[in-house]
Write a structure and sequence with these properties.
Blueprint (H helix, E strand, L loop, with lengths): L1 E5 L9 H15 L3 E8 L3 E5 L2 E7 L11 H10 L5 E5 L4 H7 L7 E4 L9 H20 L2 E4 L2 H10 L7 E3 L18 E6 L8 H8 L6 E6 L5 H10 L6 E5 L3 H10 L2 E4 L8 H8 L4 E3 L3 H10 L5 E3 L5 H14 L10 H15 L14
Parallel strand pairs: 1-2, 1-5, 2-4, 5-6, 6-7, 7-8, 9-10, 9-12, 10-11, 12-13, 13-14
Antiparallel strand pairs: 3-4
């Protein structure tokens, strides 16, 4: 089957959606499908990344929160029929709207990664205004894949008309090379994710002021809030206790994971909560904000995991939970859905919305 994956960004850009798409592409390729990624970037390019053809189209609007590529839309209008199915990602990115308005007969599967709001005051205010355009994407979709029941319930609250086209396929846990656990000189707490305001890493940094010097926070990820949070750590006198690692490759992250005593996520919005799932799958005691997605991941993980909910707006509560987590010791790794499970479920969705694989014409190259 020839599959076109439409995404706002792709590896080496990082984030929850980018990780989801990268792992999905790898699994589809391993299953024998032909996979191409259609995405946006500062400049036009075409390259093969780990066997996946990645077509990047230049941005017409480069603004971080409102990225838009008209060349991507024009290319899809001409070439989308060359695919057996288009799989479009993220309600919160305009690339999805470009795909929905490409005027093609190709079946479209949509994974919205839906949060129900924007992550700044302006984006939250614009969210209801954007909803008719979001409805265009959902109406065009042959199937809608949510990663948790919590995400589905939120989506259907705003778009009840897609109830009969919505399925739930949880995200997989990220496979990591086996690395022996390394005793660290300090109690290290891992905080992973794109550094945006809604992730509330600033709350975690403030809570670190209540922990002793034998505790350290390892922040993994990049994003627009990184500089502001580095400055916050410095103002609080925590520059030596809060370490910003930026983007790490798999080997470097595995080493960081092996030295961690605990993990924390204070995020205000998640469709799934991949950092919590990956931490529990590694057996790390985990502190999390009590949002519905985190609670659903905990239910998937089942009994035997160590997870405590804490209010990120209560520094003392968050600090106490983090201290308790670092003292708990490693637990049995949780058994959670794998990316093989995700790929198998997604391929069933593809089969349901399309006929038997056809001999599709070759899409034109990015010129």
């Amino acid at each position: 089957m020839r599959i076109g994956i439409v995404a706002n960004a792709y590896h080496p850009d990082i984030g929850g959606v980018e990780t989801h798409v990268k792992r999905l592409c790898a699994g589809l390729l391993a299953a024998g499908d032909q996979v191409e990624v259609i995405t946006q970037h500062r400049s036009r390019s075409e390259e093969t990344v780990d066997g996946v053809l990645v077509r990047r189209f230049p941005l017409t609007v480069p603004a971080g929160d409102y990225r838009l590529s008209l060349p991507l839309w024009r290319w899809l209008r001409r070439n989308a029929d060359a695919y057996d199915v288009l799989h479009v990602h993220s309600y919160h990115a305009l690339a999805a709207l470009c795909a929905a308005q490409a005027n093609t007969s190709t079946p479209m599967v949509f994974t919205p990664h839906y949060h129900g709001t924007g992550h700044s005051r302006l984006r939250a205010a614009l969210h209801p205004v954007y909803r008719p355009f979001g409805r265009t994407i959902l109406t065009r979709s042959s199937a809608v894949v949510c990663v948790t029941a919590a995400e589905r319930d939120l989506l259907l609250r705003h778009f009840p008309e897609v109830t009969d086209r919505t399925v739930i396929i949880p995200n997989g846990t990220d496979p990591r090379p086996a690395v022996p656990v390394v005793p660290a000189q300090s109690r290290r707490i891992l905080c992973v994710g794109r550094l945006e305001q809604y992730k509330r890493v600033d709350r975690v940094i403030r809570a670190m002021a209540h922990l002793g010097p034998d505790h350290r926070l390892d922040v993994v990820g990049t994003g627009p809030a990184a500089d502001r949070w580095r400055q916050l750590a410095a103002r609080l006198g925590l520059a030596g206790q809060v370490v910003f690692h930026g983007r790490l490759d798999d080997a470097a992250f595995a080493s960081c994971l092996a030295q961690a005593s605990a993990a924390v996520s204070a995020s205000a919005h998640e469709a799934f909560g991949m950092s919590v799932a990956d931490a529990l799958a590694a057996g790390l005691p985990t502190v999390a904000a009590p949002i519905p997605a985190h609670q659903e991941v905990a239910r998937l993980a089942g009994d035997g995991v160590w997870l405590r909910y804490a209010d990120p707006d209560d520094e003392a509560d968050l600090a106490a939970a983090m201290i308790e987590a670092t003292s708990a010791g490693r637990k049995r790794p949780a058994t959670l859905p794998t990316w093989d499970d995700v790929v198998a479920g997604i391929r069933q969705v593809y089969s349901a919305v399309t006929t038997a694989p056809c001999s599709a014409t070759q899409p034109e190259a990015v010129g």
